[in-house]
Amino acid sequence: MIIHAQTPVLEVHDLTVTYARKPVLWGVDFTLPAGCIAGIVGPNGAGKSTLLKSIMGLIPVSSGYVRLFDHPLDEVRHRVSYVPQRESVDWDFPVSVLDVVLMGRYGKVGLFRNTGARDRAIAQDCLDKVGMAAFAKRQISQLSGGQQQRVFLARALAQEADLYLMDEPFAGVDAATEQAIIKLLREMAAAKKTIVVVHHDLQSVRAYFDWLVLLNMHLVAAGPTEQVFTEEMMQQAYGGRLSLLSQVSDVMEKRAFPSRED
Amino acid sequence: MQDITDFFSFSDPNVRYVVLGNILLSASAAMVGAFILLQKKALVGDAVSHAVLPGVCAAFLFSGSKNTALMLVGAFATGWLALITIDYIAAKSKIKKDAAIGLVLSVFFGAGMVMMTYIQQSGNAAQSGLDHFIFGNAATLVGTDLLVFSVLAAVLLLVVGIFFKAFALVAFDRPYAEALGYPVRRLDLLLTSLTVLAVVTGITAVGVVLMAAMLVTPAAAARYWTDNIRRMVGISVAFGVFAGFAGAYISYVAPAMPTGPWMVVVSSAIAFFSFFFAPRKGIVPRLYTQHKNRQVITEENTLKMFYHLGERNSHFDGQRSLEELASTREVNKTLLKTALRRLVAKGLLVVRANQWALTAAGYQKAMRVVRLHRLWELYLTKYMDIASDHVHDDAETIEHILTPELERELEHQLGYPDKDPHDTKIPKT
């Protein structure tokens, strides 16, 4: 079941992604409207993070395309912000909290110029928004998991983008941080920003998201939460009916078969 | 003494060349090395420095003379080729990166050794001294070398200066850098080229075998002294400069001593010193903190003995003998004696004729420890549902680390209680 958005902010068209010839996403096709908080939900190994990374062009796609604001990514990169998984970086790196948030400005200042006083002010302001203003000078290895996530969020905010793609921002954070983050996301959505969140916890799906993308290697359903978040759809996404799909994947990997004929 | 004044007057042009050359090469290596270390590519640096040897030999075979500039070009070419080979093997074959590095390092170095042996047996008179490229020989540095070094070092400094923030970003969070639209692959290539350049600068003085040490050790040592990447690069360069200078001095004072190996020895000494003595991160300061913590624990436990004895006969300022104290809990008597002595020195106890008693300050402190112990026991039974006969051991540790803020918060959450889970009174200030 796919319910498409009118004038979409994000359009994923028949996207197929393979890792070393093994397909991990099959023909994913959906759209997102502006100003929504969308959840990407599905079981482990469903390809949620892969979907986010291929939207950001971090991994090559085998077929299909992604359009953002009706443009290819390279033309609108400054309007898109990506929040990687917290565990993906070494938190013992010798930089301060403010240094990390300032990285959010690197796209705007470009490769050769340095960040200036105005960038600092914006970074400080973003830290304030996530409740971490007092931690600006702290070395990042001294942060708790929830604080690390807030810093990543502040860095994304510093990009002043219109579309935010977040990989598991609620993973391993305390309840207070989770509430603070969702409150912030709602404020952003109210300001017509679009937020895409890879999410694990089914309990909070209805409360957090107004749009839902259900994924299990292929697209199970996409649309407004109240229409997609049904017993039947969840059964389809989480019930193990797809073992055939992954068996076909394995065969393709073994025989080094291309995912498309041409 | 004469040596020192001669050396530091820099009147001998040879001394000038060696000192300046050493400083330039070790500073360049240390600066690039900081980023190699942060990108976790230290082994790659080692492979590159070994892989420049066939290039040097090929340049000699090609020109038939020891032309420094041409040899640097040759070294640059094979160093670069080695890096590309490593990446290619890791990406396109089943062989993992570590094995690919080992493979490339030994194959390139082996090829270099074969070429060198061939040259040495060819009877070409110009080849004498070519083997210096293996272990380096700073004493052979001349004015033109210095010019080449200065240009290379200036290029390195300039490029690192311009791309500092990009290199730091890629080292910290590569996917994010890519998502921002930074040319990550080209930046990798750039850092790789800088690495080769730094290695090439160093081989005449330090040699291919030891060059990796000059790349990595100053940076590894610098990491112990700061949590700020800019300062880390600065300290790394400073360590590099010091090592270069010290190497030149030692080989001047004792002329039979090779410069390159001494530079490596000095920078290793700096690294070892940092490893053991750097504030907070070094082993010795950490052991000292642990020692201090143990002292605090014994002292507070000793004060508690007085309080517990006082509770038995509601007489808190009574005089206690060593035996009486030792009867309250299992304790090593020697440790107890030293703790008592320290507590007397701190004014928490008074001693008269081998009998100890709490002072007013000592009483306050003893009471606070007991109070924290009982508050924590109550917290464990109330909020964590741990049976009351299982909470004592945990509270024994926690009582020593609770801050006044946590104490207030604990008291507030428990609703200002009077009794602990064992129905003993919780003392109040």
Can you give a write-up of this model?
The complex is a heterodimer of chains A (262) and B (429). A 6-stranded mixed beta sheet of chain A has the order 5-6-7-3-8-9, sandwiched between helices. A 3-stranded antiparallel beta sheet of chain A has the order 2-1-4. Chain A is an alpha/beta fold. In chain A, strand 8 and strand 9 form a beta hairpin. Chain A contains 10 helices and 9 strands. Chain B folds into 2 domains: 2-281, ABC transporter involved in vitamin B12 uptake, BtuC; 284-429, Arc Repressor Mutant, subunit A (Orthogonal Bundle), CATH 1.10.10. Chain B has a two-stranded antiparallel ribbon with strand order 1-2. In chain B, strand 1 (349-352) and strand 2 (355-358) form a beta hairpin. In chain B, helix 3 (42-51) runs parallel beside helix 6, helix 3 runs antiparallel to helix 11 (211-223) and helix 5 crosses helix 10. The A-B interface holds A 53, 56-58, 74, 77, 80-82, 84, 88-90, 93-96, 99-100, 103, 106-107, 111-112, 114-115, 139, 141, 155, 159 and B 38, 162-163, 165-166, 168-169, 171-173, 175-183, 223, 226-229, 232. Chain B: Belongs to the ABC-3 integral membrane protein family.
Produce a short descriptive summary.
Chain A has 262 residues and is of the alpha/beta class.
The N- and C-terminal alpha carbons of chain B lie at a distance of: 68 Å
Using DSSP, what is the number of strands of chain B?
Answer: 2
Number of domains of chain B: 2
Structural class of chain B: mainly alpha
Give the low-confidence spans of chain A: none
Named at the architecture level, the CATH assignment of chain A is 3-Layer(aba) Sandwich
| Residue share in helix of chain B | over 70%
How much helical structure, as a percent, in the residues of chain A? 25-40%
**Apparent shape of chain B:** elongated
Topology:
The complex is a heterodimer of chains A (about 260) and B (about 425).
Chain A: E1 10-19, E2 22-32, E3 37-41, H1 48-55, E4 63-68, E5 80-83, H2 97-102, H3 106-109, H4 117-129, H5 145-157, E6 163-166, H6 175-190, E7 194-199, H7 205-208, E8 211-216, E9 218-224, H8 225-228, H9 231-238, H10 243-254
Parallel strand pairs in A: 3-7, 3-8, 5-6, 6-7
Antiparallel strand pairs in A: 1-2, 1-4, 8-9
Chain B: H1 2-9, H2 13-38, H3 42-51, H4 53-63, H5 68-92, H6 97-121, H7 132-135, H8 143-172, H9 174-179, H10 184-206, H11 211-223, H12 229-253, H13 259-277, H14 283-313, H15 322-326, H16 333-345, E1 349-352, E2 355-358, H17 360-383, H18 392-398, H19 404-414
Antiparallel strand pairs in B: 1-2
